[in-house]
Amino acid sequence: MKNLYLLAFLLFFLSFPLFSQNEIDTNYVDIFDLSFEELLDLQVDIVSKQEISLKDAPAILSVITQNDILNSGARDLIDVLNLVPGFAFNIDVQSVKGVTFRGNWANEGKVLLMIDGQEINEDQYSTLQFGNHFSVDQIKKIEIIRGPGSSTYGGYAELSVINIITKTADDISGINLSTSYGQLKNNYGHRNFNLSSAKKINDFSFSLHAFYSQANSSDTDYTDFWNNTYDLTKNNAAKQDVISSNLHLNYKNLSAKLIYDNYMLNSVDMFDELVTPPQQVDFKSVLSELKYEVTIKDKFKIVPKLNFKSQKSWYSLDDYVYTDRTTNKLLTTILASYDITNNINMIFGVEGAYLNAVIADTTLEDNYTIGDGKQFSFYNNAVYSQLLIKSNLVNISIGGRYDKHQQYNPAFSPRIGLTKSFNKFYIKLLYNGAFRAPAIENINNAPSNIIVPEKSYVGEAQLGYNFNNFGFALNFFDINIQNTIVYYYDEINDTEGYKNVGKTGSRGLEFELKYKTLSWGQIITNYSFYNSVDKNDVTDYNSLSEGALLANSQHKVSLISNFKLFNNFVISPSLIFFSKKDAYTGVDEDDNLILSEIDPTYLFNVNLLYKNLFIKGLNISVSAHDILNQRYYYYQPYDGYHAQYPGKGREVSAKISYAIDF
Fold it and tell me: In which domain, by residue range, is 56 found?
């Protein structure tokens, strides 16, 4: 009952209208100044690689603008994605925070993350690493497919696609500087420094982003399942440091991109037990792209593209775990787009990928059981196509992707979308297939190296309507994953690895309601729910509650509000509510895992932002995250004997940014 009173109070607070007499003066498009119709007509190209409006795009989409991020006071990508329906975060191993989507543990190759179209997922295990990793100050917008994108982007896009688009010379003409500091109760939370510069000179333009950060993921004790405890404020035990840069060069239709990213963690929660002193694990990536666009008579476009990715993932030279492995991936793509008529477009793509993995020193760590013991390589070739037809009756998107992996049988991922918008109403019916080949370490750690690809089939439907200052969208989803690739640990034989274990998935709904006015601001409420009844055969994902998957709340509510006050001042309270969930919290006398019910979590945040303080381009903000000090705990969503990892708790932050226009 106490929780219900608290939720009701916060709902009332976030829904109370605050009025002002002045409009905010910004030097970029302010979403406050866009009608719902204009918001829905924002152009995106993440779905089909062809610009199309949000309401007509054959996918369930979320678009987060730089203004959304600035107003919210988000510290990192976790803060941003927590505001999006379906997303949540859990612990993997070695202090790495991983993503879940619509109840499904998705961190190993089920969600594709891109920065400016370049793939970020590491290729050893195909994982992602969240938590003070990516600079939010560099972002122009984030396009998110809340559903499969494999028919276009391949295997990592099995359940969702996140594309971070950074600011270019069209957004910056000079230098943007920002710095922020966050304080926890017992330690600093983060110290971030960001520099962005861009300029356009005739047919040439460039943009350069640089980010340096020191952060702590927690400031309290970590205790493993055997009651071994360590104070995370000592010896940088909760370190999350990052050095990154992102360079774009453009000359007419030729573009080149280069990203360097080094994410450095300290960890005492290595796997199933506490390890001291803290061990360092790094994730080093160099990503590059060369692309040229050829347009013929405004109707036919050919885009050849070359991407090269080199990574040292889970890199550690410490005593407890020594890992020094490099993966190199070469991707060649030719994309063709042809406007057959004003209402018919066809896209065709050919893709070739070559991946090579090498162990630096086989005398210091286990050899590969695949390849020649030191290195392993394979190729994957694919073709994909899509036909977009706009008509008065319905818009049709039909296509698919055909993959031929060196290790496995060919696979076809179909895609069908029907969309229609009229007056203020729109509807979408979608069906997508996905194919995900096992990652290198999935194969290497499978019994006798026998493991097969996952295949997923997802059906979705969305209804949307906008009237006056209100808008809402309701969508339903049904996810079916076959041949699920699952990590396992055999405590009897003390062995671990990966295997295929039947089916899993979820079904559910997501709802979003928006209210906005030009006079005082906006309120956005979204709700997401999933259920896995009759969907899950993976015992390691089982939960106490019927229909719930391990360590994942079935209900999530996000409330986001921005209120314009005097001059250029904005106050933005937000609340993220996670319902109860079931997770492993310890072991019994026989070292068997104990499954417990975890209370709901309320993350209440407030950001105060003053734009153009004294001079144009100077912004100052002060924020408080997790005001109720709930200290969101990250639980492991599979059977890996990893104890819950404590979150940051209450953090008070300040940020200063200044844009110098040349």
Answer: 2-661
